[in-house]
Amino acid sequence: MTYALEITQLHKIYDNGFEALKGISLKVEQGDFFALLGPNGAGKSTTLGVVSSLVNKTKGSVKVFGYDLDTQVSQAKCLMGVVPQEFNFNMFEKVQDVVVQQAGYYGIPRDEAIRRTEQLLKQLGLWDKRDDASRNLSGGMKRRLMIARALVHKPKLLILDEPTAGVDIELRRSMWEFLTRINEQGTTIILTTHYLEEAENLCRNIAIIDSGDIIKHSPMQDLLKTINTETIVLNLQEPLVNLPEVEGYHLLLVNDMHIEITLNQGQDINNVFVVLTAAGIKVTSMRNKTNRLEELFVNLVTSNKTDLQGVSA
Amino acid sequence: MSTYEIYIAYLTIVRKEIKRFMRIWVQTLLPPSIIMVLYFIIFGNLIGSRIGQMGGFDYMQFIVPGLIMMSVITNSYGNVVSSFYSTKYQGSLEEMLVSPMPNWVILAGYVTGGVARGLAVGTIVTSLSLFFTQLEVYNLGIIILVVLMTSILFSLGGFVNAVFANSFDDIAIVPTFILTPLTYLGGVFYSIDLLPDFWAGASQFNPILYMVNAFRYGILGVSDIPVGYALLVISAFIIALYSYCMHLLNTGKGIRK
Question: What residue spans in chain A does CATH classification 3.30.70.1560 cover?
Fold first, then answer.
């Protein structure tokens, strides 16, 4: 099977001796929407940097749709589009020129490049800004410009390094819709993000990287199933002083208007409502305290840190 | 990439580079023109009229080829060093590095941009010099060849400087402390026959001497250095610098992490 991305035993040691990647291996299937998560400095951007040829690897192999980056770099690069974390276009260039030029670097004739640029800028809501200097765009527009630029040569693999960082929620949602659409059209997407809700909503497979190692690599659903506990917050209609006990459940009165319930896997929340209703406590609404993936992510990273400390001790 | 796609990628960089220096012509084309007019007035007309002849020609006629060459050198170098460093500094170099474009195309694109600016300024300065003196063409082929080779050489030099530069100060150090002294000591304003033997010998190590003299030969028909030898030296420098630039690009020195 040919993977969209196949990383084998990838190592990266920077000149200052810092080992950013400790031999990671990763496979991303064609058509996947894949999340690469990890805390700051875990090695996400280094991994994507090596894949996009911006960072020299120390050893290991990277293949893009079967093309080895060491021996078939041109073919591999033709199939990839990269949206980096930092704005990296010429701030003095016009919006349209940024995209047209990028098409030129991929050998796309100018007429065709202009046509594709118009199409992408319209899809991403930037067509009205096409003649503006790119430095005058808002943060969200700059991110969209980088997406347009990465897509102009019609890549089969799109790599996005925190594409929605600093983008307001409305715009973030419209970007999610756009990315979902192009994924449905066949583009494989690899995403890093700090918004775990984003990863949970969009991605089918996930890898968590920490301290240069992959500590989890599985389908999103399988990972979410491993969550043992879930914390629910109940919003009350009236202030509460004495919290009733519910046998087998852990309830906490956070303040007089909020109760937190920690549910273990398989526990039924209706049992809690029965007791609360009997005590005359009215609940107006409820919500998850944290995103499920966020809870799992924090647990995994924290336990990995503890393991590492144990090893070094 | 096919040959045609490579050609388009190359043209894209060249177009971008020419557009850049044309857009900021007040910074790129106007200052060298004004400076050269001042050289023509002060060194050529005012002081030159008292100096008399140099190498069998009016002093003004003697210095014009050197001044044209000086403009070509500083502008070819300046264009590549400032443009490539800005690209690196802003991060937009990554646009090229992630693309399938071969490294030699990136280098060729920037060098062509430097050559284009060198030729543009050289043409402007040559046109302006005609207001002050008569220029004859002794050997058009040599003129074209020397200007092209010189601008290629200094564009490559500017590229090396830009790769190693970590700040805007770094891109000013080489032109100020190396390029300008070498140009002034490269026989622009005098014939090395005037120098004591030791300094005339030391001047032979200055590559700019060969360019200025070869160009002067193309215009006036006189040179302190045999023209064939000068062309050989310039070619050797081009090959050495090109190889070094390619080594830097292929290893990612100063460009990739």
Answer: 229-292
**CA distance to partner chain B, nearest, from residue A74 (Å):** 4
CB contact under 8 A, A104 and B90: no
Instruction: Search chain A and give the residue with CA nearest B89.
Output: A88
CATH number listed for the domain at residues A5-225: 3.40.50.300
Q: How far is A252 from chain B (nearest CA, A)?
A: 50
Residue in chain B nearest A49 by alpha carbon: B257
Q: Are A150 and A88 in contact (CB under 8 A)?
A: no
**B118/chain A closest Cα distance in angstroms:** 23
CA B88 to the chain's CA centroid: 22
Contact flag B92-A86 (C-beta cutoff 8 Å): no
Chain A residue with the nearest C-alpha to that of B3: A107
Q: Measured between alpha carbons, how far is B183 from B32 in angstroms, rounded to an integer?
A: 15
- At A94 the three-state DSSP class reads strand
pTM listed for this prediction: 0.82
Helices then strands (H, E): number in chain B? 13, 2
**Spatial contact of A38 and A78, defined as CB atoms under 8 Å apart:** no
Flag whether residue A102 sits within 8 Å of chain B, measured between CB atoms: yes
Where does residue A185 rank: exposed (0-12), middle (13-18), buried (19+ CB within 10 A)?
exposed
Handedness of CA B115, B119, B120, B125 (dihedral sign): positive
Reported ipTM: the value is 0.86
Cβ-Cβ contacts under 8 Å, B98 against chain A: 52-54, 77, 80, 82
Distance CA B143, CA B140 (A): 5
- Residues A239-298: tens digit of each pLDDT: 988 888 888 888 888 888 899 888 877 788 888 888 889 888 999 988 877 666 666 676
CB A78 within 8 A of CB B101: no
Among chain B residues, the shortest Cα distance to A87 is held by B91
What residue spans of A52-105 are helical by DSSP H? Answer: 73-78, 95-105
Selecting from 3.90.550.10, 3.30.590.10, 3.30.70.1560, 3.30.70.260, what CATH number does the domain A229-292 have?
3.30.70.1560
Q: How far is A172 from chain B (nearest CA, A)?
A: 24
pLDDT grade for B93, boundaries at 50, 70 and 90: very high
